[in-house]
Fold each of these.
Amino acid sequence: MERLKSAVPADIRRAVGEGTARDLPSTTSLLLDFFDGVPLFHQVISELTDPELALCRKDKGRAVELKGRGNACFSKREFEQALGFYSQALRYVPISSDGNYEILVPTLYVNRASTMHKLGLLKQCLRDCNRAISVSSNYAKAWYRRGMVNASLKKYSSAIHDLKVALSMEVTSSGKSNIEQELKLILLKHRNVNEVGRSSSDCQDAGLPHTEPHKVVLECASTPNKGRGMMSLNVISPASLIHVEDPLAAIIIKSCRETHCHYCFSEAPADVVFCPLCTIPVYCSKECQEQAVGDISWNQDTSLEFNSHHLVDNAKLGLTSTRCKTSNSKQIAEHMHECGGAHWAAVLPADIVLAGRVMAQYIDKRLLTGKSSAISGPNLDLVHHYDIDSPTSKLESHIYAIVLLLCLQKYYRSDLSWREESLSQLVLLICQIKVNSIAIVHMKSVDGGQELTESKGYSTASDAVMCSVEQIRVAQAIYMSGSLFNHSCRPNVHTYFHSRTLFLRSTEYIESGSPLELSYGPQAGEMDLLERQKSLQENYKFSCRCSSCSELNLSDLVIDSFCCPRSFCLGAVSESTCYRSEENFVHVSLNGSAVCKLSLPDVSKVDEDMEKVGKLFFRNDDADLKIDPGYCMSCRSQLDLSSVVATLDRAASKINSY
């Protein structure tokens, strides 16, 4: 997009940068008219939407090549590499009704199942066998492999059934002889060993139990300092579940595209499932695939044709297509408009693709209700802060809105048309998503987790295998009610996610009428005051006025400080300066510019031991607290700041060079 930005003349840049939301109809039309006469712009749109130029289309030749490389690795017993090649081959297999496809797909599933069987991934292996049978029910190798993995799972009745079916379908004498030998062994084991029942945890998409929400009455109210926000009309106990919500739209972030399911955002298993129409998304199960793409039959002609044509007046932009809904009639298939091989959804930023999903959902709902009149776009009741955006950000929003509109136009093919204010509404939608989208955070095992534990034969209960986990950001989404909760650097509400669903729980006792506030990221104790304010201003366009930002916290003062040079002292050496001390607070100069108030705790109200600790840290015997650069706040030992800062800079430089 940098090429398009640099092509915009200075006068249009100035008009866009100085304009407000009321000026959007004129500024968007001005930029659209300019781009209509720029060959570079038409080239960019063609590169993003033309399937012949696409990087994400299916390729049977590529699938066959990857299958051969997987076979070679399997022969050399390089099973992990073989697993990767078979999965990539499945990613590139196109939907087709020719005979080659009907042989290739079940073969790939069985090959991948055999590889996972070797790696001890039995449940994943069983699912691939089921997929192979669903595509080709008369494929003997699929029944044989499923029988063998059922035997490994000690499900001998199922194993015997599968091997008998495989025996009836096998046409070669050597194949029949092999199956008969395995069948005899399993029949013998069946007589001597008890059956293993199906565990309730076998289901890949089994949901986690959640307590019913506490009967909390929430109300959206406005305050002078923070504007709209949520508050409770009754008392809330700690750990109460106060809100549950599914997103209006969600998108996986680029760094997790290959490692997490694009619908439920859980970690992708070894037996990933791919989109049947393009190579972009991966899914953890058939269920997630159908939720995102829709229920597409294997013999359906799903080719999408794109006709290239020049831009026209934005009041006449036509959009058409036949949409697929998921098995749940209330759910719109969120990925369908991004399919067909065009790679714009893989190239554009995540928040722009998310805006496209919101727009596509709005269009689909209108089409499903029979409304074919001209539309302007969704009018979400969310803040956008367009007027205070930077000129550069305004220009980017304009360009992305035009590009996104034309990418959607390439997909939709009905007599549906846009109103003149469509682009204006799309610019505001992009701004709303930037300000209001919520990061979906999941827990990630950093040492293998349950899957590794099971593959090694451990029992998490009896063997007490240790597992380290960390929080990672996997996606971003728009939650219409969740977006109304204001931020606090000391929140009283905790957010967490199961799949795409947002859950909010209280972290403390909350009085009736008190605001319910969560953290948008920065929290006291994790960032200092100035960093928190800067982060919130840049990302959410507001200056935080919560209780933790109204004055300095001790954590703000010591979070980036140095340790006391005396080994037995636990005090901190700050670069900040305390220039005045009073009874209950001091004023602190940060970075030589900002001056903040720091309240001191009243140690007389705590027990004797805490009083001793407080006096040691906050007071000297004969003087008030002194916060001077280079001096320990506890024992007053001096540290050569210039020396340690230089050492720190050299170490940081070496780290950054790697």
Note: Confidence is low (pLDDT under 50) at residues 197-206, 298-324, 452-462, 619-623.
Amino acid sequence: MEAQSYNNDNILSQAKLYDKIVKENIHKVLPELIRDILGIVIAKQEDLQESLQYTTERIPDQLCKITDIQGNTYILQLEWQSEDDPSMQDRMLTYRAMLRRKYGMVVKQYVIFLAREKSSMSDFIEEENLKFSYSLIPLQKYSHRIFLDSKSPEQKLLAIFGNFDTTPPVDVIKEILQGVTAHKKGQLNTNRYVKQLRALVQLRKLNKEFKTAMAITTKFKIEEDAYYQEGIETGIEKGIKRGIEKTKREVIEGLITQTSLSNEIIVQATKTTLSFVREIREKLDAQGSLQS
């Protein structure tokens, strides 16, 4: 029972982290995202207060008063979900009623679903004397290229939630890393984007691919990895050394099994020795982990 409670708390904590990261970045990319995903071209936008006097639960994620290029004016509400909420349709109905009452305008509601799995949330209510629906949009149905082709590093991060099609995950993550480090916003912002991407890849279960992409992207050294930096901050020196060694080994294993890079290039990318790389390759070969 205790283990189940811990797992539930851990899942909830991770979901909150994903939502927090998205909300931190979304205001910077909102017009572009609305255009590319919702097909709405904004002529005028006014951000609205997100608190609603009569709601006792969570406040809306984003609220805007929009005038599109066709001259239509309405309230636009966006919600971000990294996991299913069985009561989502009731939440959205409550929001809809409160927004309609407060602003007296048409309300368009969209729930952006971040997870890779298909959502099981209901997007409508249909019962006696009541019909209601909102738009449920899984980012997984959109090509990751929509986000990568953006000039905004914040929108490039969203590529991790898109459809990779036949592109290997390592290549997608590598391109995201290259994109968010190519901007002119300074090293602090670069580090923040990389740390955010590290958290977001967990939702797609791509931790190993992330480490491999980090090694291939030569701007980053293993020693500059977020785990290493967090270890320094906590002062656990022995743990740092063990963590770096384990991370480096996992990265090298990924480079050997997932790429055709030579031992010499892997040595340069990971700042290790040729004998260490050969040892790992021979071990993987003995285990049958290498493709012939």
Note: The two ends are 46 Å apart (CA to CA).
Amino acid sequence: MRFEATLAWRYVLTSRGQTGLTVAAVAAAVCLITFINCLLTGVQSRFIRDLIGSMAHISVKMPDPDPKPLEGNEYATTVQKQLQTRTDLQRPAYLETLLHEFPHVQHTASSVGGQAFLIRGVRQFGVTVRGAEPAKQENISGLNDDMVQGRWLSIGPSDIVIGFKLAQDTGVKLGDTVTLISSERVQQRFVVAGIFDTGQVQVDGSTVFMTLRAAQQLFATGTDAKSISIKLDDPWQAGEVSRMIADSLGLKTENWMEEQAQLVNAFAAQNSTRVMISFFSLAASAFGIASVLIVSVFQRSRQIGILKSMGAKDAQILRVFALQGLFISVIGAVVGAVSAYGLLTFLSGFKQVARFGKSDQLFPVILDPKTFAMAMLAAIVATLLASLLPALRAARTNPVEVINEG
């Protein structure tokens, strides 16, 4: 094997033009595949973060009541009227314990929410109230990172935090006292303890957060909860986990993948496009390498004939050119990966400044070692497969014919 490796490496070094061309082809394919995958993965992750970063992956609620048929015929059916239905979740703490037994469930938070009016002077503003324990809700929404004034995690039962746009619209400032009137006609006064900016206009312009106990009093739910929010370790498992919870506990579940079905389909199409681009990049690189190696075999046909006349076996000649392809693919893969890493690192350094001095990457990039490894492995395998045809042609060379022709 040492003879084949030595000869293959000599061919790599002596044919600098061909080697440079093939190495560049492999490097370009690896660089392109890695760049596209890291960038698109980063774009998708940021989009998911911005879209559902402050919301639950799954929401658990009481099921909607089903009207029960009493009697009827083929033309009409008498349906029992629902006189009173329970819409709140009893024993929410116990339900949270049960939910943690399902796979991928990372965090849960019981909540009470609804519509209310925020009274500021003589003006009224419609708002959406959400009450939950701050420590638990933080695991769901990460609201503390979005706070621009005041506090969130340490608020009391008489405190609220509001979006910055709502604060602008109402003229409310930190420390001001406002009145909330719920849909249950319960009226309470609260102190504005914090102002947040999530970057989502709808949330920042109409949402009010408070403690769970304060919301239970405002909406007169007692110790019950309206819903339980769930955060998963993998948001893409929301559909499956949601179905498991509904089937097992008989509760109504809603998940972000159903609510954002068009976005999920767009991501699927984007991933398919990414795979196609990667495939055609490898295919183009492989065909180019095969062409160059075929020319290399043709140019070295006389040398091959001499080697075979001196006792070199077909398998040895096959290994020589296969190893040549392997050396080229490894060098090209390393060069391509290093180039992609440098380019991605450079792009990740660009920042964009948002409101309140916040900054974020202009080009969201995720440098995943698995992406680099898979791109390099795919390029090496494709190059090896491309080198098989020239290697087989070299192994089948008739030494008598090529020597006589030379």
Note: Residues 261-299 form the longest helix (39 residues).
